[in-house]
């Protein structure tokens, strides 16, 4: 008879060598396989875990170690957390049910009534609402400042400022902020910097290496990458994850389901390839749009015309990511809206939807969807005109995408 422990050790290959590169970590980092030696990580759909005896059970509950109940932890979720942490260069990560759930966990963990946050005005719309309305109700006050003007961030600091929250590039105008400069500002003020890294993912941008303290993700987007599940995460130091976020997750319950964790875990294996291919596609579409006579302006960090082009290229591994936006030419807001709707409605390949990070390209009219709840004055201030169209570019052939845009924009031989 084989010794079961020996058998398990022989199959497991549990420990990876040190110093593996990001591409390798993205496919290899996970908990050790089960006794069956499955090569693809298993999906553990279980809410509870059988304990060997009462003593062990008591210890596991007290120390939050191993597995007791899936609101606290689950092996599939742990594998995702380990893999994402490795890719972000973080000591640890905690997964959540959605991206917004990750921000909720961040604030519940770090802040209390009376604390102050400085946040870019251009972050994801629900993030603005969550800070301004929901956290405001509990006495956490937020000042909203310019995405790109560091002096506004500095001027907003107060003795009670505990957190700076940034997102780069932003949606839909792809404005880029300087992560390193914001980290210095935060630390000088005794605050932490959190960066929403959803748009770049760790394949392009690793905020912790630039000085950020916490990386937040909407795993719903590129980490899944195929538009299937909702997910979120925070990546940070072991101390923050274990002592601050872990206990809140365990009691508040914004836990990621094992099935969604498994989908995202497999998504991470192709993240690098997808981000590269989708960034290349997006740059090709952006260059094509820049030459189209019906287009007034294209917003995309990898274009030399982008105001923070140099910073973006340095911060994002030389790639622009897979979201761009552009303004159609028109004389009045009414005409701009009609022109934008015509472009959107003429497409036959692109999906009309409000999501991004999918292999299927998506076309959106921000002024009437993601930014539809703002007043016209707020939209004007944010630069979200009625003629603005956002494209989240996927993996289709780039010529099929530009052909699709020509249906509404008009024909153009604008291949560079
Ligand atoms: C989608 C998104 C979120 C919110 O994530 P959900 O999973 O939808 O809750 C937060 N930030 C950015 C940049 C996003 O694109």
Report on the structure:
The protein is of the alpha/beta class and 416 residues long. The chain folds into two domains: 20-268, Aspartate Aminotransferase, domain 2; 272-409, Aspartate Aminotransferase, domain 1, CATH 3.90.1150. The protein is built from 16 helices and twelve strands. It has a seven-stranded mixed beta sheet with strand order 1-7-6-5-4-2-3, sandwiched between helices. Strands 8-9-12-11-10 form a five-stranded mixed beta sheet. Helix 5 (99-110) runs parallel beside helix 6 (125-137) and helix 14 (333-346) crosses helix 16. The longest helix has 20 residues, at 271-290. The termini are far apart. The relative contact order is 0.12. The model has no long low-confidence stretch (mean pLDDT 94). Pyridoxal-5'-phosphate binds at residues 98-100, 124, 126-127, 167, 171, 196, 198-199, 218, 220-221, 230, 232.
